[in-house]
Predict the structure.
Amino acid sequence: MSRRSRGQDEESQIRFRPNPKGNRPRTKDRPSHTDAVPAQVVTVDRGRYGCLLGGFETGGDKDLVITAMKARELGRAGVVVGDRVALVGDVSGAEGSLARIVRVEPRTSVLRRSADDTDTVERVIVANADQLAVVTALADPVPRARMVDRCLVAAYDAGLDPLLVLTKADLADPAEFTAGYAALEVPWLVTRRADEGIDGLEAVRKQLTGRVTVLVGHSGVGKSTLFNALVPGAGRAIGRVNDVTGRGRHTSTSAVALRLPDGGWVVDTPGVRSFGLGHVDMSRILNAFPELVPGAEECPRGCSHDEPDCGLDAWVNEGHAGSSGPARLESLRRLLRARAGAPDY
């Protein structure tokens, strides 16, 4: 047999399998998933999402939390705690079951931060909350007003109602610290450690009842202690303050949402040492001061609202912003400086 005929005989014995993927007709149409069930994300852990069937507003389906993964068709779309989602697949909640998140519903609010003030890429922390509780200790560690200011800017930018929760009042008088926020008209609550728990806890619980509240604060300020007291059995790890640096150690490594006993939800977030605001449009901060907004119409183009030709000075001096106008203007400028300045590390 010649070399040519032998080669042809060998080729005839080769089997060619059809490529099912290549033969599948391409389409841009995505499944509608009309049978998807609503849920809300309560935990995020390494690509797995704990989703409460029904969501916060309906109270959930017997606290049934479904483990789910993000469907491929969502691409790089982020999913965070608080997101309202649609699930398909196994939603029984049985051990080892896994559903798919096929849709993320429009968000009513988004709390975000950037890595630093030069980074305009935003990192979404929590979605669909309506209140931001900034937790800060009055001592051990010392309060960092600039950090609190930056959290307030993030709250105003996200459209969340701000609340100051001051812990460890047994170590320092809160009067001096709270005086700096009187003009901002931010409500504040004080707690102190006691032998039988936390004094002032009921006032905090009342302020959180019926709402979706995010707790944000430096490490070591008592945020996880407060969270565990508000939600018995939560079991969030509690850290201590370093005797040398005066700063706390990160104990909470991921956000988690839990139901409050009297109604409402509270979201604990990892302790932060900085709160970048590079993504915030500075003009949006002004909207938190509605009595000053009309005065900004007299400002020169590109006014930073903290310069000699700013039209807000004349507006306030003429009494249009009321008796608290000067203090409110100074508070606005303090927040603008916090937005434009270096983080409080």
